[in-house]
UniProtKB/TrEMBL annotation:
<dbReference type="InterPro" id="IPR050147">
    <property type="entry name" value="Ser/Thr_Dehydratase"/>
</dbReference>
<keyword id="KW-0663">Pyridoxal phosphate</keyword>
<dbReference type="GO" id="GO:0004794">
    <property type="term" value="F:threonine deaminase activity"/>
</dbReference>
<dbReference type="GO" id="GO:0006565">
    <property type="term" value="P:L-serine catabolic process"/>
</dbReference>
<feature type="domain" description="Tryptophan synthase beta chain-like PALP">
    <location>
        <begin position="67"/>
        <end position="360"/>
    </location>
</feature>
<dbReference type="InterPro" id="IPR001926">
    <property type="entry name" value="TrpB-like_PALP"/>
</dbReference>
<protein>
    <submittedName>
        <fullName>Threonine synthase</fullName>
    </submittedName>
</protein>
<keyword id="KW-0456">Lyase</keyword>
<dbReference type="GO" id="GO:0030170">
    <property type="term" value="F:pyridoxal phosphate binding"/>
</dbReference>
<dbReference type="Pfam" id="PF00291">
    <property type="entry name" value="PALP"/>
</dbReference>
<dbReference type="GO" id="GO:0006567">
    <property type="term" value="P:L-threonine catabolic process"/>
</dbReference>
<dbReference type="InterPro" id="IPR000634">
    <property type="entry name" value="Ser/Thr_deHydtase_PyrdxlP-BS"/>
</dbReference>
<dbReference type="GO" id="GO:0003941">
    <property type="term" value="F:L-serine ammonia-lyase activity"/>
</dbReference>
<dbReference type="GO" id="GO:0009097">
    <property type="term" value="P:isoleucine biosynthetic process"/>
</dbReference>
<dbReference type="InterPro" id="IPR036052">
    <property type="entry name" value="TrpB-like_PALP_sf"/>
</dbReference>
Length: 372
């Protein structure tokens, strides 16, 4: 088997072989990056390839998949003048997380762990559970209390064990990390393991292909732990370095106003979260992005800055209206899936084009304002 690219710590440079079960940097316990700078294939050579994200084979860190469920290649539809939506809820487990989860499952298959552990606000756990089922690997998913019952049901349906932690998303992550140090456990962390980002980046490779070798002026992206945003930044860099785009899109990062640590740091001109007192948080409808201390904060802030983008926040009221508005146009998305549209539907973009992801299906949470 071809050797896989190694991981390394972006903070202290510690190298971690990809065939190690270590779920984070052994020196600082932070997230890892991948030593992998691929060159995308030219547009013309993509025709006739497999109709899933595996068509971007040159850019993927893992060769031919064994556990694919046909993930990727989601439709792009117009929402308003200059604004299109990429329907990333049309994936095997109904959220964009499948793009990254398939990478973690492929990796896990090679490592042959006794147990796979993940932590999640719901959707990443659902996706890891499905791909572990496909790979016949036992899986436990740590989720915070308050996770939508439908997501718990989805995790359990795939034969994984949902472990509900009494506390917020950070408490669930802590519990998972404690369990992940046991012998033979693979920590399938969508936050710490960089293979996940090399899956989510295919969101942008698809856009580039569907727009005929171009990208929109603005990519609007919901941000909790930033896995879609950081994946997008990776793909933009790959396409730009290869000379396949001449301009890089601005990344507009969207957070929910009640839990917006990155937007606060951005407003203060900071390049990281404050070391001590984190900004206060409150409950939000956007459960998928309610992350009080994202471990990749520094990387997210830098990616937005380098793209010439910005941060936007949305109130629960705007999320509710955006979800209702999308449903009235035939698009049934979960509450977190509506935040990108909530952020730009009333913005003046002028002549600029933008793409928003609708990245979680309505069945997962139902309508915030009810409808019957
Ligand atoms: C529907 C949906 N959108 C957006 C996100 C945000 O992803 P991230 O936390 O990686 O920024 C999530 C995460 O769970 C999600 O479930
Ligand atoms: Zn480190």
């Amino acid at each position: 088997m071809k050797p896989l690219p190694d991981c390394f710590c972006p903070v202290d440079g510690t190298r971690v072989p990809s065939d190690s079960l270590a779920g984070w940097c052994p020196a600082c316990r932070g997230p890892l990056d991948l030593d992998f700078a691929p060159t995308p294939a030219p547009l013309k050579s993509l025709a006739g390839r497999v109709n899933s994200l595996w068509r971007y084979a040159e850019c993927l860190p893992l060769p031919a998949p064994t556990v694919s469920l046909g993930e990727g290649r989601t439709p792009l539809v117009e929402l308003a003048d200059g604004v299109s939506a990429k329907l990333d809820f049309l994936t095997p487990t109904l959220s964009f997380k499948d793009r990254g989860a398939v990478m973690l499952a492929e990796l896990a298959l090679r490592l042959r762990p006794r147990q796979v552990i993940a932590d999640s606000s719901g959707n990443a756990g659902t996706a890891v559970a499905a791909y572990c089922a496909r790979a016949a690997l036992p899986c436990t998913v740590y989720v915070p209390s308050g996770t939508s019952p439908k997501k718990l049901e989805q995790i359990a349906a795939h034969g994984a064990r949902p472990h509900v932690v009494d506390g917020d998303r950070e408490a669930a992550a802590r519990a998972a990390r404690e369990a992940a140090v046991a012998e033979g456990v693979f920590y399938a962390s969508h936050v710490h393991n960089p293979y996940f980002l090399h899956g989510t980046k295919t969101y942008v490779h698809e856009l580039w292909e569907d727009l005929g070798g171009r990208l929109p002026d603005i990519l609007v992206l919901p941000v909790g732990n930033g896995t879609l945003l950081l994946g997008a930044a990776l793909a933009v860099a790959e396409l730009h370095t290869a000379g396949l785009i001449d301009r890089r899109p601005a990344l507009y990062a969207v957070q929910a106003a009640p839990v917006a640590p990155l937007a606060h740091a951005w407003a203060e001109g900071a390049d990281d979260l404050p070391g001590a007192a984190p900004p206060a948080t409150a409950p939000t409808l956007a459960e998928g992005i309610a992350i009080p201390r994202p471990p990749r904060a520094r990387q997210i802030l830098r990616a937005v800055r380098e793209s010439g983008g910005t941060f936007l926040t949305v109130t629960d009221d705007r999320i509710r209206h955006a979800q209702r508005d999308l449903a009235s146009r035939g698009l049934y998305v979960e509450t977190t899936g509506a935040v990108a549209w909530a952020a730009v539907r009333e913005e003046t973009l002028g002549q600029r084009t933008a793409v928003v992801p609708l990245c979680g299906a309505g069945m997962k949470t139902g309508m915030a304002d009810g409808c019957l």
